[in-house]
Every structure is written in C-alpha cells, then in structure tokens.
Amino acid sequence: METIDVFGYVGALIVGLVLGLIGGGGSILTVPLLVYVLGYNPIIATAYSLFVVGSSSLVGTIQKIRSGLADIKIGLAFSFPSFLAVYLSRRYLVPGLPNVFFEFGNISITKEMVIMTFFAIVMLMASLSMIKNKKEDDHPTVKQPYYKTFIQGIAIGTITGIIGAGGGFLYVPALVLWANLPMKKAVGTSLIIITLNSLIGFTGDMQTIDIDWFFLLVFSLFTIIGILFGVFLSKYISGKKLKKGFGWFTLIMAIYIFYKELNTQM
Prior knowledge:
Distance between the termini: 27 Å
Largest sheet: 2 strands, antiparallel
Number of helices: 10
C-alpha cells in the first residue's frame, strides 16, 4: 500500500483529535482504521499504531505541560515500568505467538484474530470502569504508594504491548481511579506515558518487521494536526463530560471490533 486515500487522511485527523481531547483512544481508532479500512495486517497495524500515537502524543504532551495540565512526576512513575514491559512484549512476546492457536472445522483462531479480540476485551473493561465510576474528578485524595504504581505500570505496559496501543484508554482510568488525578490532569499525564511507551515499544517492532516510512510519516503528520485541534478544544469541555464521553466512545469501538472479528468467521 503506497499511498493514503481520503479515508486515511480523515481518519488520521480524527485520531489526533480524539487523543487531544481525551488523552487516549488514538490506538482505539488507529488499529481498526489500519486493519478494516486500509487493509493492513493486524501485526503491522499494531506496530504502526505505536509510532503514530507516540509521535502525535509527544506534540500533545508539550501543549499539556505548558498549560499545567500534566503531572510529570506521576507520568514518569508510570512510564518507567510500562515502557520496559511494552518493549519486551513487542520484541519477544508478540513475535513468539503461534500464527494459528487452534482450529475446529472450517474455523481457524489466528494470531491476528486473538490480538484484535483481546484488544476489544480490554477496551470493554476500560470503558465500563469510566462509565460506571461515580468518583468526583475535582477532589483528588491521597496518592497511592509507588510500588503499586510500578506493578500497575508493568501490567498495563504488557497489555498495551500485546495490542499495540499507546494505552491511553487504560492509563486515563488508572490515573483517575488509582492515582486520584482530576480528569483533565489525567488526560495530560497519560500523554506523557503514551509518548514514552509507544515510541520505545515501536523500536522493538523495528527489529522484527519492515516499515513503510513514507506512509507512516504522512499519516502521523495528519494525526499531529488533529491533536493540536483536540488540545485546543479540550480547554472548553468539562472533565466530567470528557470522562463519560471517553467511556462511551471506547465501548462503541469495542463492540465494533467484536462485530468485525465475528464476521470474518461467518
């Protein structure tokens, strides 16, 4: 695939817009867009997603820090264990998975199907945690001890490494529910983690797959334009609305992926 069609350009802008608004969701859009619209293999798509989300999140991170809407200390505390887990997952775990897990009749459960289904399950769990939670965003309590943050970072880093996500749709709920950050600050802080996780994780893929750099750089450029608009718009939307919108958006995308994967076997 040598060029990006109009759907690719529009999709890249939307990916960036979502990242800027809610500090996550870039991979939730990027992976399905690359797989279902542009026709990439899920293994390639999850790798490209790391670069696209990481490079665009870097721009968003700078904007959020300038606005005072990112906690650098907490972001780095989550990032260190996370990027180690992401790198090791992309470098060794994902390439080591069998191409076909098992077969029954005419149905084959492939590596690609398992990754996309796991992606959807994780998204579903994250969405429900944000939709149902009633904690007030603007009244944070005592921060949790670092060892809990370290363990959470390893767990989320491993998951995001497998599914090729920046992890915003996991880190935003974690920062709100576990680190007790207000929603808007959780969004900015998650971008710090996403940037480090994604770009370091992508270096693991560079050693195992061939990269179409022209496609990747052009797609990322449009995503960066989108994230600049998203960061600007986020100033005028309340944290409570962002939290609920984040949850419902993730839920809808999870259902869509389940639907698409079921259709491939029918």
